[in-house]
Amino acid sequence: MAAVAEAPIRRPVSLKREIGLISMLWASVGSIIGSGWLFGAQKGLLAAGPAAVISWGIGGVAILILALVHAELGAMYPVSGGSARFPHYAFGGAAGASFGWFSWLQAATVAPIEVSAMINYATHYSFAHGWLHANGTLTPSGLIVAVILMALVSSINFLGIRALALTNSTATWWKVGVPLATILIVAIFSSGGLHPGNFTAADGFAPEGAKGVLAAVSTSGIIFSYLGFEQADQLAGESRNPKRDIPVAVIGSILIGIVIYIALQVIFLLALPASAIGPTWAHVGNGLYSAFTGPWAQLASLVSLGWLATILYADAIISPAGTGLIYTAASSRVSYGLSRNGYVPQAFERLSSRSVPWVGVVTAFVVGCICFLPFPSWQSLVGLITSASVLMYAGAPLSLGVFRRQLPDAERPYRLPAAGVLSPLAFIVSGLIILWSGWTTDWKLGVAILLGYLILAVSRVFRLNSHEPVLQWRAAQWLPVYLVGLGVIVYLSPYGPLKNPVIPLWWDIAVTAVFSLIIYYWALAVSLRTEQIEEMINEVVLPEEEELGPPLPA
């Protein structure tokens, strides 16, 4: 087997370059505009009051920094499942397998979030009243419906990347148009007009202070709503002109998302009539708006725009379904990439007659259905996936720092300005979002991480992949310290379970930032050397690009 490890078998690939610029952009935008816009404005008010507007700004800037990092990396190495593979090239097998698992966990569990959102809004109709318990969790009949919806979302992926891109692009035009139209219609035609006094209504602009503003960024769905820009990286191996299109898709999608989400929060707040606002913003039951199960549709009805509510209930099916569709595709590409790197069974590289990694699609469907059991409501899923997502994103700034240091002359179709500052800043942002997710979410993520390591170990022990990557433990020595250290910081912070936190508010941010910087420069110091990185790229990236073929005319 040693000979196999030294000269891994080149497996044939037949993914096809069939996605143009608009489809790449819409793949990312369609992932960003999903269930988040349907619930985010209401959840933001519950967490932070009117100061949620600030939370949306903070979240948008944080994710934009991460997006800029991905734009450079995706254009440099346009391979399928890119965000799961960059750490592999920079730090070797142990770190690559870890970040690959974080990436797959995030991608595979977004679809059940979107299905939960669809069911939440569907309870407006009498036939769906029995799908949810009073606490928002799925009933047995709701679980059956959820599994059927997951099957429908997954089945479209079997039609091939061209059909997937066409379906997603069509849905995304609708998904972008509806929230934009909602903003304008509610702002202009709502009965009673807008109410600027709402910014100081109830218990004030920022009832929970800075802690509420920062916690809202992660736990109320704000960061979750912005996620998805990396889909252009995940589908890069099927892009016609990846070196041009990926930076445009990654950066453009997040800018579109920031504009739409901040406008939605402002208009939702201003349109609320006084009768819908209770004495406080934070506690469910004090105001009519806090009990909304379909926030925007019910607000539309409340301000005498019933016809708009009808459209929004329809959109509550289309928007989440489109996002679930593209994430299911992404999860299959991530598992495909993990198999190419030798981490998971080789079966994940099997392609259908339409060049679809079908084993990955089926696996994503099964895992998505399982997610309805321990995390059956939209809100409980959001926190976990946000943390998993940020762990995945944390690998990108580390990889960029390594490539800038070890490969200074490599071709960079998009070169991130001030990368020496923005790259470590992006890594700090990742740590802060995990901090703000809170202990209740993060310990569950820790369990999921351990489960992932068990799966990866089984694949290696039983030799389920003919390519056994060198794990490069030295280059990954910082990773367990990072994961455990972040867990300790969260536990001791105001976002942990302690009644009297050891690390006070604001100091927790400073501690997380300093700890992240230590890990960042430690990781760069022990990363793979230039010749090792180049060997890995020559072994994996360049052959894959050759097998995929040259870019097609745009």
Structure description:
- By secondary structure, the chain is an all-alpha fold.
- The protein has one domain: Amino acid/polyamine transporter I (Up-down Bundle).
- Helix content is 67%, strand content 0%.
- The protein has helices at 2-6, 21-32, 36-48, 52-76, 86-91, 93-122, 140-156, 161-189, 209-219, 222-226, 231-234, 242-271, 295-302, 306-340, 358-371, 378-406, 419-437, 439-461, 478-492, 507-526, 530-548.
- Helix 6 packs antiparallel against helix 16, helix 9 (209-219) packs across helix 17 and helix 17 packs across helix 20.
- The longest helix is centred in the middle third of the chain and has 35 residues, at 306-340.
- The chain is globular and about 65 Å long.
- The model is unreliable at 1-13 and 546-554 (pLDDT under 50).
